[in-house]
Amino acid sequence: MTDMGWINGAITGARPAAVGALLRYFRDLDTAEEAFQEAALRALKSWPVNGPPRDPAAWLILVGRNAALDGLRVRAKHTALPPDEVLSDLDDAEMPLAERLDGSHYRDDVLRLLFICCHPDLPATQQIALALRIVSGLSVPQIARAFLVGEAAMEQRITRAKARIAKADVPFEAPGAVERAERVGAVASMIYLLFNEGYSAGGDVVRGPLCDEAIRLARLLLRLFHTEPEIMGLTALMLLQHARLAARFDAAGEAILLEDQDRTLWNSRLLAEGLALIDKAIRHNVPGPYQLQAAIAATHSRAVRAEDTDWAGIDALYAALERMQPSPLVTLNRAVATAKLHGPEAALSMITPLEERLSGYYYYFGARGAFLAQLGRLAEARAAFDRAIALADTPAQAAQIRRHLDGLMRTA
Amino acid sequence: MLYAILCYNDEDAVWSWTKEEDDAVMGRLAVVRERLAPIMGPSARLLPTTAATTLRKSPEPIVIDGPYAETKEQLLGFYVIDVENLDAALDVARQLTAANPGGAYEIRPIALYQPDKRVS
Q1: Beta carbons of A219 and B50 less than 8 Å apart
Q2: Do residues A60 and A36 lie in contact, with contact meaning Cβ atoms separated by under 8 Å?
Q3: How far apart are CA A311 and CA A186, in angstroms?
Q4: ipTM associated with this complex
Q5: pTM for the whole structure
Q6: Burial class (CB in 10 A: 0-12, 13-18, 19+), A63
Q7: For A204, phi and psi rounded to 5 degrees?
Q8: In chain A, which residue's Cα lies nearest the Cα of B64?
Q9: A276 touches chain B (CB under 8 A)
Q10: How distant is the Cα of B39 from the closest Cα of chain A, in angstroms?
Q11: How do residues A156-209 score in pLDDT, each as one tens digit?
């Protein structure tokens, strides 16, 4: 007997490759998805009895393809035959599928599938929803819950996204080197968006698993492109951030700052994997934004206690990130390291020029208030914290600032 | 006779397990390890092959990202056991299979064994 948990895992694991290959055969997302669904149903019946196949993806592709062809033939009796180009890749049906899966086709199939989801015409929220539906195989109700919208609205969002993709020209030939690199870059940012959806929700049971899914997709992308330092960096960044999940919130659900977290709650396996990946990436000597952010997270992770943090190292990494990707938010983060190194005065003069651009940003006034409080400028600190509370997106953020204000009252 | 039991499985599938599924498998394996304590040597679970680096031993050794072999099922971990013969080793592998189905175990007799207590 074959364990059902194992079967479900094997189907989920094989899904991107299988749907990707079926999409290449049928050149139609809905047909590919239906073919995969049918194959998965048959797998659930067949594998427990006959044992699992050696190569689940190849099995699902073959069975899915045959099932979809049968469907097309049945329909063809009532309507005209499908045009040849729809079935363009079927003349090589005799070629052993298992062999093809090892080749570059497999890699480009999965990449194409991921890339289709981040078509530039699609807004970010549709990109993520589509990736969760098509690549990860989450159900529409699951995705709707994760995005806090109704099922009908999510169904419509995904249908619209698919319609837009069907109209867009998706190239099916193997991409060239430059195009492949662009696709990898687009997919990487979609995966990071997905991660942030889950990360910003914190310990939330519904949205939290989005982080796991983003990490799974990143590992998948890295398996396909295992010499890409930025993909190593992206994967490391998410692993290192996700490792802190259990320590990020207290029992009441309020956020705990990095320096106050119980570091023994950090997930050591995720940390180990993240640190291994950033080590590998840095050896390439081709720094990039994901690697730099991962290196910053790694520096925090390596400090056993908050007071052991290598702030000089973090400041240097932020300085490099500022040069590579100038942004007021990067400078704001760097100011925290600067405050540790050179005191709150230096940090304050670093962020003051940002005020205009960050005037609607909660974290800016939170940080400003903290620096002012450290300098003993309590009235100004109070004003900054008040603005932060007004800009807070969540009750947890507001509560965080109120604790600072309470601290001020005690000092005053 | 010392045997190594090398654990192969599809890592995309294994690393798709939820924490609950993973904990359940690890829990069942812990029971087997405990039961077999007298014959169990060191065991290890490896991080995914994406974390692997390969050194090709050419005259000028080359460092390559990723695992040595690109295979459908990856080496995910191993056990060292001390048993009478292959039948006994296969019996251990069957007990492990009951706790952790899927994939394959390769049973390899060990030629040289140098346990080192510095790594714990």
Answers
A1: yes
A2: yes
A3: 32
A4: 0.85
A5: 0.85
A6: buried
A7: -45, 125
A8: A227
A9: yes
A10: 27
A11: 999 999 888 888 777 777 778 888 888 888 899 889 988 988 887 766 766 777
